[in-house]
Amino acid sequence: MGPPAVPTSVDDPGRPRLPPPPPSALSGPAHAADAMWGEAAMTGARAMLLHENGGMRSTAVIIDRFEAGFGESEEGWLWDVAGWTGGDINRFWWKSEGEGDFDGEIEGEVQALYSRAVTPFWDVQAGVRQDFREDGESPTHLVLGVQGLAPHWWEVDAAAFLSTGGDLTVRVEAEYDQRITQRLILQPRIEVEASASDVPELGLGSGLTHVEAGLRLRYEIAREFAPYVGVEWSRDLGGTADLTRALGGEPEHTRFVIGLRAWF
User: Fold this and answer.
1) Where is 153: in which H helix or E strand?
2) Full-prediction pTM beyond 0.85?
């Protein structure tokens, strides 16, 4: 059974109906204050009001993950940081993520993006991405993506990358903060990657290439500073897993992580 049909004030037949406004009510200036203070003075006042209620420039840096991981066959560390500067509608975003091992080998990427809000909860982003690797290719990519808040409070970052060599790849990340207390937060996170074609020089096969799923428990000593512990499982898929095995690696890993999340 559905909910009971309870009448509201909208359904009340005794509610008085308001007549439409007379034409003279719409014949004056667009802003009534202009008639008293003058259009020039009120234009400046409205611009100031818009600036103070959403038009201000802000800047932030977010260290989403800075962690060390320990597993049976893999030990290393990684970073995942981002930041922006701009207003509510237009912003410049930068993002960087990568990983290294304790022997000193590092690989990662940096993105520079123009971001524009297209709805209250979603931004469209476009720009460039530069990879850097100590061994092998370090391609440059064009980037087109979306970032925002999905239903049920999932934070989503999805992007497509077109390299200068014509290789098209896609990455989707999603995470969710489940508050246990005001300071203790459990965060599930998942990341999926895919490639439109085989890219042997980068160790990628066509189709779905990689998946990660993790669970992190953090404690906010302050809102801006939160150490965490967790566990993460990752696996190469399809042709990418075959290439990983051919190079002597393991396509699947489980590791325990300890790290820090911060922002300022």
Assistant:
1) none
2) no
